[in-house]
Write a structure and sequence with these properties.
Blueprint (H helix, E strand, L loop, with lengths): L34 H12 L4 H4 L25 H5 L2 H36 L3 H28 L8 H12 L3 H26 L3 H28 L5 H21 L3 H7 L3 H10 L1 H9 L4 H7 L5 H9 L10 H20 L8
Helix pairs in contact: 1-5, 1-8, 4-5, 4-6, 4-7, 5-8, 6-7, 6-9, 7-8, 7-9, 8-15, 9-14
Length: 355
């Protein structure tokens, strides 16, 4: 089913093209170098799933509040501007915030699909090519799932946000293969896991919960893939090369933080963007969410060796440094367990309660 007519964007502007700078790398060395990556590849093969069959698309959603999230997680909640809003404005914000988030998930997953395909093309080791091939299928499935959720259960789709667009272009136009990993596997996937988790854990609609839970199961492997590949590669870099990667991580993290300011959504809703952004900066819920954004990224960045004083200062400024000692693998393992629990409960025919 075509969804172009539902975009808040002219049809002629729905195509985005730019010149990439990747290399094509063949390897004639078929001896694998990483048993960890081979095990991850095996898991990627075993955990393939069909979005048509695993997800119950017949589950209804509230047409005005599909996710059924508590208003305390909405942008602006508790601010002076929130208390001035009418009930109609709050309802519109609830709906648009859900659509905007899901739209960025959809666009980000297409970006991940393209990034994964590029990794197959230019990564130097055979086991990384093996695993990246499974991720291409994962990302196609994620695009399929979010496309279907938006086109069947929501009324329209937002265009890609500027910060996400900038980061994707940077990740895909740098000719060095590891920058694609950094941009997608570490930064975009890391933030996505936090945003997905928010819906999985706080939505009261079983369909919205399930889509995000199952996507998270795959994304947990993707982040692990980036961590394993880069952790082995970065010790070989010079100080100058490492500094370039640190600059990319710092700039990309700020882009991702700003993605959730959503100026295009506020304009669509008729708000003064400058007034809203000023209110958002002091909103308690937004401050907590921004800090949590880096709960998946910070431990991974530290683990792969990009942990200079400059990087630590940046995450201190962004409020995420407290996650430096978090066990990244434990969180990823838990994402897989939660998805399996969703399978069990969905088979029993009742919705999964929000946490």
């Amino acid at each position: 089913m075509a969804a172009v007519f539902k975009y808040i964007l002219p049809v002629e502007e729905t195509h985005w093209k730019f010149q990439g700078a990747g290399e094509t790398t063949f390897t004639w060395n078929y001896d694998t170098q990483s048993e960890d990556l081979l095990r991850l590849y095996a898991k990627g093969k075993q955990q393939q799933w069909d979005a048509d069959k695993r997800i119950d698309w017949s589950i209804d959603v509230d047409p005005d509040d599909p996710m059924q999230v508590d208003e305390t997680v909405l942008p602006l909640y508790g601010t002076p501007l929130w208390h001035k809003m009418s009930e109609r404005q709050k309802s519109d914000l609830r709906y648009h915030a859900q659509v905007h988030n899901l739209s960025q998930f959809l666009h980000g997953e297409q970006g991940a699909l393209i990034c994964a395909a590029r990794i197959v093309q230019d990564v130097p080791t055979i086991e990384s090519k093996f695993y990246a091939a499974t991720q291409v299928m994962d990302e196609a499935r994620h695009v399929e799932a979010y496309r279907r959720l938006l086109t069947e259960k929501f009324r329209f789709v937002y265009p890609i946000s500027k910060p996400l667009k900038v980061l994707l272009e940077q990740a895909l136009t740098d000719k060095r293969w590891d920058f694609t990993y950094l941009g997608m596997q570490v930064l975009i996937e890391g933030v996505a896991l936090v945003a997905f988790q928010r819906i999985r854990d706080y939505s009261r609609n079983a369909l919205c919960q399930a889509v995000n839970a199952y996507v998270m199961q795959d994304e947990a492997r993707h982040v692990a893939f980036g961590r394993l590949a880069l952790r082995d590669y970065y010790p070989e870099l010079t100080d100058a090369e490492r500094r370039e990667r640190e600059d990319f991580v710092i700039e990309g993290s700020y882009h991702l933080r700003d993605r959730f300011n959503s100026p295009e959504m506020w304009e669509q809703l008729g708000f003064d963007v400058k007034e809203v952004l000023k209110e958002l900066d002091g909103a308690e819920g937004q401050i907590r969410f921004r800090k949590r954004l880096f709960s998946r990224i910070v431990p991974t960045v530290r683990d792969i060796g990009l942990w200079s004083e400059r990087v630590q200062k940046a995450y201190t400024d962004m409020g995420g440094i407290q996650y430096a000692k978090t066990d990244a693998q434990e969180m990823l393992d838990n994402d897989a367990k939660v998805a399996q629990e969703f399978d069990r409960k969905m088979k029993e025919g009742f919705s999964v309660p929000a946490k």
